[in-house]
Amino acid sequence: MPELVFFSGTMDCGKSTLALQIEHNRSARGLAGMIFTRDDRAGEGKLSSRLGLVTDAVEIEDGMDLYAYLVDHLSQGGRADYVIADEAQFLAPEQIDQLARVVDDLGLDVYAFGITTDFRSKLFPGSQRLVELADRVEVLQVEALCWCGARATHNARTIGGEMVVEGAQVVVGDVNQSDAVGYEVLCRRHHRRRMTAATARAATLSPDVLPVPPG
Fold first, then answer.
1. Are 199 and 163 in contact (CB under 8 A)?
2. 29 against 15, higher pLDDT
3. Which of 14, 91, 139, 169 is deepest in the core (most CB within 10 A)?
4. Residue 84, Cβ neighbours under 10 Å: how many?
5. Hey, which bits of the chain come out as E strands?
6. Is 48 annotated for ligand binding?
7. In whole angstroms, what is the distance from residue 144 CA to residue 147 CA?
8. Which residues form the active site (predicted)?
């Protein structure tokens, strides 16, 4: 039976790499997939991983009906044996409903990949709807690590290395950036304390945290 599967995890845990692997495995068997994405780091109409792999994709726009797009593609003689939707957290809830309809009415497997929560530890609307509708939710087993070595469970937005908790929910960036806006994965403890790798290094160098006063 066709399924809607949601592969979730933090940033830097290999979601896009797995999406590209699924595409490779199925295309190698002669299957044709429809690949959707939104706001990929490689630019519009691309699905890329941090390992350097990249492929073309259909860029999802605001208000785009994904079910209607697939129906139109198939009615014009196009082929789609499965669907991949990367960066699914950026989709509107109604677009997730459309992906579920692709499974139910067109009989196609849909593999959605995305981050569950934003930099404030709040659910993305698209991810919330996927949790509500998916036949399966798979948490990726490639664990991203916090700077302290613990398992990273939260995404932090940083400006100049310092964590911020206010701003628009969607601001495109990447992990380990040193420019104005970047992202870092943290364990819950350090996310709660707003302690990034940069601020942790600064604290270590500060005499205020030494156990005894400097001689």
1. yes
2. 29
3. 91
4. 26
5. 4-9, 33-37, 46-48, 54-56, 58-59, 82-85, 109-115, 136-139, 154-159, 162-164, 182-186
6. no
7. 10
8. 87 (proton acceptor)
List the Cα angle 33/12/192 in 5-degree steps.
Answer: 135
Judge whether 149 is annotated as a binding position: no
10 known member of a binding site: yes
Q: What's residue 179's pLDDT?
A: 55
- pLDDT at residue 152 tops 90: no
Name the token pair of 32.
Answer: 């044709």
| Cα R_g (the chain), whole angstroms | 19
In Å, how far are 3, 43, 124, 188 from 60, measured between CA atoms? 21, 12, 16, 32
Q: Is 89 annotated as a binding residue?
A: yes
The residue that leads in pLDDT, 105 or 15, is 105
The pLDDT tens digits for 40-85 are: 776 788 887 766 778 889 999 999 999 999 999 999 999 999 999 9
Within 10 Å of residue 105's Cβ, how many Cβ atoms? 11
- How many Å from the N-terminal Cα to the C-terminal Cα in the chain? 71
Question: Catalytic positions, please?
Answer: 87
The per-residue pLDDT for range 110-135, each reduced to its tens digit, is 999 999 888 888 899 999 999 999 99
